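Today's session is about reading a structure prediction critically. Students often jump straight to the picture, but the first step is always the sequence itself: look for stretches that repeat, for charged clusters, for runs of hydrophobic residues. Only then move on to the predicted structure, which in these notes is written as discrete structure tokens rather than atom positions. Here is the chain we will use throughout the hour.
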Amino acid sequence: MAVDIIVSRDSQPNHIGSSLAVRLTAAVIATAFAAAAKIAAGPRAAAATAVVGVLIAVVLLRQRA
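Below is the predicted structure for this chain, in token form.
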């Protein structure tokens, strides 16, 4: 849900920095979920969560372009 809000189609970037900010924010969200998964369930869960988070971010960011 957070990534969807960040990359919603209603908000068009005003300048080139907006695109970079969206990508960095998506990376921070994926990293936070991976860190939480590592604490809760271990390194394998963290790796799986990171991969899924990156795939979701890539799909959402490609739809935006």
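Discussion point for the tutorial: The chain has three helices and no strands.
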